Amino acid sequence: TTAELRALDAAHHLHPFSDTKALNAEGSRVIVKADGVWLTDSDGNRYLDGMSGLWCVNVGYGREEIADAVSKQLRELPYYNTFFKTTHTPAIELAAKLAELTPPQFNRVFFTGSGSESNDTVIRLVRRYWDIKEKPEKKVIISRRNAYHGSTVGAANLGGMAPMHAQNVAIPGVVHIAQPYWWGEARQGETPDEFGLRTAQALEATIDALGEDRIAAFIAEPIQGAGGVIVPPATYWPEIARICRERDILFVSDEVICGFGRTGKWFGCETFGTHPDLLVMAKGITSGYMPLGGVMVADRVVDVLLEGGDFNHGYTYSGHPAACAAALANLAIMQREKLVERVADDIGPYLKARWSTLAEHPLVGEAPMLGMVGALELTPDKAGRRKFPEVGKVGTLARDFSFKNGLVMRAVRDRLIIAPPLVLSHGEADELVARARKTLDDSWTELKRWG
Ligand code: PLP
């Protein structure tokens, strides 16, 4: 029963990113099965999964084809590694497939087990690159406030979230600059384009202030995801791309969320016209059916690394055969069903048109959406772009109403966010927006009750 499962969970499980004590008092929601875009809990309640799990189930739940590919691989060769002069067929085939799908500068991948491991790999690849080039003083990595790059010690240092830094072990040489969050951080009267340009130029100013000879790399997500789905103003990425082109630094695009169709192209860097040297992937590579990550490395970086001899880095599960088999089956589905094109030309614009109408709600400051990722900024004062005094309280209230209304949305501070599976139907998109609207109405009524 649900009560028995909750009791076991409360006794034995420490939950990630949770106040486990508070959660135990309330009891976790136990998800028992899923199909398409729908989740079912242990009491039989159904939820439209507006978050694709944790931004990963791009092809939707219940894909027998992926389960069969994993099962076949587990029977044939459940495990082997890619260390010490060995490899295996699924890793070889997936590496070649990724070279085909990623932008032309990428022809090699370093496999990992997750996004966090991928970003730790980035730190080590960047360091190695500049050491081989005999510029060991280039050690600083520039990142952005509120960025999320993972939870391992290295990746959490790259991330720009203060509560995570407070519990982490600091490593030297990571500097954070502003995020392109116009609604929350623009000056009075500053247009999105002016703000986008100013925020991008913070990169150049930081490079100049610290000295270009000390800067190793700049890392950023095309759209900041866990930071609140921050869709940058149109001027932001072209200016960043210019700076990265003109300066002697590596540019790392963290595509753990934006990769594999989320923004309407295979990768977010293609949507925004940037030219990364390293491209970080995880999540959508297998649609979350198996854990897998990777770092694509551009030819100009590979050429240097290959001159450097041993790279003393790798994971037992780098290129796990069953995970690679899941990825190959997942990517075959995406290509056969033209899911990336569907996001660009069909369901993406359809959902955006409906989602945008939520901006008219009195509680909503802005309702951005790009591809299949969007947000609702909740505010007590639309015109004044004001925030609620107690950050996160209204967001959590709305998130809980959303669950009650059978829709999974996530709250980041007082911003609700969605990233539904790319297979969402038109009818399901209508349903998603109707449930989001009901959530806003419920929250509005409750806020009025609070006075
Ligand atoms: N990078 C980004 C942009 C992410 O959103 C995440 C996870 O949400 C990660 C890295 C970390 O990935 P993982 O949880 O697979 O370690």
UniProtKB/TrEMBL annotation:
Keywords: Aminotransferase, Pyridoxal phosphate, Transferase. It comes from the Bacteria. The keyword Oxidoreductase does not apply. Its cofactor is pyridoxal 5'-phosphate. GO terms for molecular function: pyridoxal phosphate binding; transaminase activity. Belongs to the class-III pyridoxal-phosphate-dependent aminotransferase family. This is Aspartate aminotransferase family protein.
